[in-house]
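User: Hello! I'm new to structural biology and keep hearing that structure can be predicted from sequence alone. Could you demonstrate with Ribulose-phosphate 3-epimerase? Please show me the input and the output so I can see what each looks like.

Assistant: Of course. The first part below is the input, the amino acid sequence of Ribulose-phosphate 3-epimerase. The second part is the output, the predicted structure written as tokens.
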Amino acid sequence: MAQINPSILSADFARLAEEAKAVEGADWLHVDVMDNHFVPNLTLGVPIVESLSRATDTPLDCHLMIEDPDRWAPQYVEAGAGSVTFHVEAAAAPVRLAREIRAKGARASMALKPATPIEPFEDLLPELDMLLIMTVEPGFGGQAFLDIMLPKIRRTRELISKHGLELWLQVDGGVAESTIERCAEAGADVFVAGSAVYGAADPAAAVASLRARAEAATASAAWACGH
């Protein structure tokens, strides 16, 4: 089952509560947290997540593009996030952090930048609920999808299947109607979409269209046969 997570990075920050309601048919609301250190951009933090969690019934999927997630990630669970993603490049103790996120009641997710290979982290996969493959360099919305990430998505799906894990595989960056089918065919089942949703005349209809495309591609994908 394909999941669509609209990214509020592409929403109107002055109307976040309304923008969240505009995509109530989405599976999750993707919240990009950037600290102007790990990535060259500054967005929002714990107080906004707390406010958003009160303003919408859609669960929050917080993607932390920050330094020292070991220190800060648990606070996002306390603020109301249902899923918290940390970058393995920034985490000092990823297994301990994933366990702490889970212990506090949220799904634990680990993100990899485009140049970070998945293979060294194979043994960590059972500690996670989701793995995020970045399909652009993190830090800015509206970037073009990197096709060279498709083999990495396939390899990651193979590792998930090899270990028989119920691990969601998320992609983030340049996901749109022109790219989502390739991502689904390669093995992704959770899709972050920013401008493809919030740049559309009808964001809710855009979510439904993206989900339909992803599910059609998944139905005929080799990895999903017998899944």
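User: So the tokens describe the shape?

Assistant: Right, they're a compact way of writing down the 3D structure. Reading them back into a model, for example: The helical segments are 16-21, 46-55, 69-78, 94-103, 150-162, 180-186, 195-198, 203-219.
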